[in-house]
TrEMBL record:
This is ATP synthase subunit a. GO terms for molecular function: proton-transporting ATP synthase activity, rotational mechanism. It holds the Pfam family ATP-synt_A. The keyword Cell inner membrane does not apply. The chain crosses the membrane at residues 23-41, 77-96, 102-127, 134-161, 187-209. It is found in: Mitochondrion inner membrane. It comes from Thanatephorus cucumeris (Black scurf of potato). It comes from the Eukaryota. CDD domains: ATP-synt_Fo_a_6. The keyword Membrane applies. Belongs to the ATPase A chain family.
Amino acid sequence: EVTNLIGINAPILGFFNLTLTNLALYSIVLLLLTLGLHFVSSNNRKLVPSKWSIALESSFASVNTMVRDQIGTANEVYLPFIYSLFFFIIIANLTGNVPYNYTITTSIVVSLGLSLTIFIGVTILALSIHKVRFFSFFIPSGTPLALVPLLVLIELISYLARAVSLGVRLFANIMAGHTLMKILSTFLFQMFSSSILVAVLTVVPFARIHSNYWFRNRSSYPSYVT
């Protein structure tokens, strides 16, 4: 739930109203956290990279590989934006696992705002690059002339639906995951607190299963774990 934290009214400036909500506060914190992680993990002055540097370089390499496969090496100019968006969303989702934290991607405003903004930007960029040829993407090759109006309408609706579907997908996935975690945690807490016997009978089998799995597969774990 989005709540107001600080509100500032300035009647001298007319109807000027500045309000800081928990959504805006967590967005600023996530931005600073993302920038801080990359600043701390920078390896400019060190010969041996740290674990954080290796982790971020691996993430960048993975995103770079996916971007190259999709848009080619000639369009790597868009890689910084794609990587920044990827890292911001994944940090926002991971911090949502912290108890009593607010996940900004559970807000439909943020999810749809990101998807619509990127959709409009991509469309403007495509129009500036391809000009009138951009509209040829709505006509599949080899389409009979009689079916062109129908297929253009279908392709146009499909293209416009991406702006909404991507935002709703992100919002729905995170909201469903948090709702499931809340239901399970509430159920387990009530079950454990109802009786000590129930808690013991529930925990012991899971501990036994985990120990059997660990002893059976401990050879596959790194040496510092075993």
